[in-house]
Design goal:
There is one protein chain. This protein is α+β, with helices and mostly antiparallel strands and 418 residues long. Among the domains are: 124 residues, 2-Layer Sandwich (Alpha-Beta Plaits); 32 residues; 46 residues, no CATH class. It is 33% helix and 19% strand. The protein has nine helices and 16 strands. The strands form six sheets. Strands 7, 8, 9, 10 and 13 form a five-stranded antiparallel β-sheet that branches. InterPro entries: Thyroglobulin_1 (IPR000716), Thyroglobulin_1_sf (IPR036857), TM_ErbB1 (IPR049328). This is Thyroglobulin type-1 domain-containing protein. Keywords: ATP-binding, Disulfide bond, Membrane, Nucleotide-binding, Phosphoprotein, Transmembrane, Transmembrane helix.
Length: 418
């Protein structure tokens, strides 16, 4: 066929060009000696693997050989993409520069995808199986025909409630574990985890750490450990302030739709794995602080619904916050007592003043009465230029005095007898 004339498969010059007779455009493709389709690329370097140096020397002239050690990928995975379980390292055959692709989609991965636990447990299990198949190919082993069941994931990457392998089916939970239910029909919807509560206990002296201002250092190191493990800070709701009991720290994780971590079940497994492999041990001032105990508790969607669709807020107050609140409450209490005492004193004072005013009124009234009586018995009035006075006489008869000058009250009023 003319369509294959002078056609060469880039990167695989030994491949044979054939025409697809079923294609209306005479589309061509390349096959190898066994009739398998061959992928042709524009790469200038042909990729092949070998077990011995002599095999490589026979196929490539020494001057053109570029050997990419396997350790390049191993180191790159540890340093740059260890959190992405579905990642496969690929080396550029011309430069030996590593890059990472998703084993499921064959697409290149970004730094963000490499730095966070962005898969679900279902996807992770699928990736582990597919990665093993890919690794086996480098050793010349084909595992594609092996009867290995790939977990079935939904559109969100979570386990389908019903998992089947051939004619055998079972109902599973959010971890992919069998629930023991009959799978003759449909399985119940999986009750997904939305909140994870963890209490970490370290073998440290609380009083000593507090006096040396190391509690905040310990708290910050736990934050960093969790983020280094690929946990998005947006789902770390709280890393509580350390409290006594050796040294204990409460950590709360809560599902967040905007987070790179989409499966709280995977976060739960990750925390357990970190605890079992000393991944949560800390080093402070050159001393190792070991995690000696961990307790976990989860809250599922149904439990949240039973609480009136309210996610329980476990942001317990820190010791400092409790002290501050205690002081504020104490001050407010003292102010209230002071106000009450002031009001009582003021009221008592008002009552006393009212009583004193009452007594003074009575005295004034008495004085006024006495004064009125005197004025009635000792009247003073003016007639022309003379002052006329009436003064009681010893016998009850008034004495009338005519004078051009004011009377002296001490003088004897009897001047003229009528």
């Amino acid at each position: 066929m003319k369509a294959c004339t002078n056609q060469v498969c880039p990167g695989n010059p030994e491949a044979v060009c054939v025409v697809d007779l079923c294609s209306s455009t005479c589309k061509i493709k390349f096959i190898d000696a066994s009739g398998q389709n061959v992928m042709c690329t524009d790469d200038k370097c042909q990729v092949f693997s070998f077990n011995e140096q002599d095999t490589c020397s026979d196929k490539c002239p020494a001057s053109n050989v570029k050997i990419c050690p396997e350790s390049v990928c191993e180191l790159a995975m540890k340093q740059n993409c260890s959190k992405k379980h579905c990642a496969v390292c690929v080396l550029d055959p011309c430069t030996c520069q590593p890059s990472f692709i998703d084993v499921r989609t064959r697409k290149n991965l970004t730094n963000v995808q490499c730095n966070y636990l962005s898969e679900s447990i279902c996807e992770l299990k699928r990736c582990d199986i597919l990665s093993n198949i890919e690794k086996a190919k480098f050793s010349g082993i084909d595992l594609t025909s092996a009867e290995t069941a790939l977990p079935e994931c939904d559109d969100h990457g979570k386990f389908n409630p019903k998992q089947c392998q051939g004619q055998s089916c079972q109902c599973v939970d959010q971890f992919g574990r069998s629930t023991g239910e009959t799978s003759a029909g449909s399985c119940r919807e999986i009750d997904e985890i939305v909140i994870l509560y963890v209490t970490l206990t370290y073998n440290a002296n609380y009083s000593e750490y507090k006096s040396n201002d190391k509690l905040k250092v310990l708290q910050d190191m736990i934050w960093k450990k969790l983020q280094d493990a690929g946990i998005d800070p947006r789902i770390i709701k709280k890393v509580g302030e350390p409290y006594p009991g050796s040294v204990k720290v409460d950590v709360t994780f809560q599902n967040n739709a905007d987070s790179y971590n989409k499966d709280m079940a995977l976060i739960t497994n990750t925390i357990k794995q970190m605890a079992n492999t000393n991944g949560l041990d800390l080093t402070i001032d050159g001393q190792t602080v070991n995690l000696v105990n961990i307790t976990e508790q989860v809250q599922t969607q149904s439990q949240v619904a039973d609480n009136g669709n309210k996610i329980e807020d476990e942001d317990e107050l820190s010791q400092t916050e409790k002290i501050i609140i205690g002081v504020v409450v104490g001050v407010v209490g003292l102010l209230i007592i002071a106000v009450i005492v002031f009001c009582l004193c003021y009221r008592r004072k008002q009552q006393k003043e009212a009583m004193d005013d009452s007594f003074e009124t009575i005295r004034e009234s008495k004085r006024s009465s006495e004064s009125s009586l005197v004025s009635e018995t000792n009247k003073v009035y003016q007639e022309d230029d003379n002052i006329v006075k009436e003064s009681p006489m010893p016998f009850g008869k008034p004495a009338i005095v005519f004078s051009n000058q004011t009377c002296n009250p001490t003088e004897d009023f009897v001047k003229v007898k009528l």
